[in-house]
Write a structure and sequence with these properties.
There is one protein chain. This protein has about 260 residues and is of the alpha+beta class. It is built from four helices and 16 strands. It has a seven-stranded antiparallel β-sheet. A six-stranded mixed β-sheet has the order 13-12-11-14-15-16, with helices on both faces. Strand 3 and strand 4 form a beta hairpin. Helix 3 packs parallel to helix 4. This is Siderophore-interacting protein.
Length: about 260
Amino acid sequence: MIVDIVNYIAFSACLMNHTAPVRRVQRVRFEPRRRTAYVARTDPVGASFIRVSFTGDDLHDFQSLSFDDHVKVGVPGADGQMVLRDFTPRSFDATGRELTIEFALHAQGPASDWARRARPGDALMIAGPRGSFIVPQDPAWHLLAGDASALPAMARRLEELPPGTQAVVLVQVPDVSDRRALQTAANVGVQWVASGAEWIDALRALHLPSGEGYAWCAGEASLMKLARGVLIDQHRHPREALRVAAYWKDGVSAFHEKLDD
């Protein structure tokens, strides 16, 4: 495991001779490895997701240190060849060697088709994560915003935030049956919207809390590009306290991109 510490500057401007505290984002890199995991059970989550729990001896040294992590899973394509897709490790129990991943159930697609058919004992190739981008939990507030593809990461982050933390959550899901209870000890305000247009309008209308905060956004590429502009140009949120990821792009398969690097 290789660790890089990356400084990022104070989120608010320095005043007079007072220097704001420097916070640190920790980048942890892992040696690449492919593992074979086996389905332990499946559980539906709302109308459009299924949670698949995996076990297996290959998970003995699996690590996922951040809600922002992603692994690649290999599922059979229409031609029988392996197709790779990116997923968030929803949770990992090191003691029980159990990894949980949430699959979105699209109308069609190799990962969705595999998840619908998954039964206990079925094998799956899982690679990664290649590293973790660990965002500190101690900013005054956290913004978690995205579409349905970001729900597993947001839900994990909320579960990991300590009591008393302030969080603002903005989620776009087209089906109200996918609005779920989000478990957290944080003080959280959640806003659900149905469309991408509503989501970006709601992001523009947000009154972000005072103090040093960290904003994290993920979802469809064109919407995330707009979101980055809204946070930087309208809300004047510091780039150093911002993480924006394009988890998917309309009309493109296997797309994943960081927009804030």
